[in-house]
Here is the input.
Amino acid sequence: MDYFRKLPGFRRSPSGLEWLLLKKLPLIALLGTLIPAAFLALLWWAGIIVNFWQDKLTLMVIGFVVFFWTMIVLAGIGAFIVMVMKGPAYIADPYYSPDFHERDNDENANPFDRPK
Here is the structure.
C-alpha cells in the first residue's frame, strides 16, 4: 500500500511569507535575547543594579526574554504549519460511516435521513 500517493493534477501553492519568517527567526531570536541582556549587563556594570538577582528589573528582563522565546517558538510552529499546508495534496483513505453499506443498497433512501 502506497501511503504517500500524491493527488494527480494538484498544483503546489507558491511559497510566501512563511519561508521568509522561518529564515529570519534565528536572527530575531538572537537579537531579542541579546538586546535586553546587554541592557541589563550595562546597568549592572554601571553600578545601578547592586544586587543582581534580587533587583526587580533583572526579573522583568528574564521574564521578557522567556516570553519572547515562547512567541518565537509559536511563530515558528505557525509558519511550519502554513508551509506543510501549502505542500502537495495526498490521497487519503476514505472513512466510511458504520451504516454506509446498508444505505448503499437502498436506491430510494434519502441521504439526509438517519438510520433507525
Q: What stands out?
A: The chain has a mean pLDDT of 82.
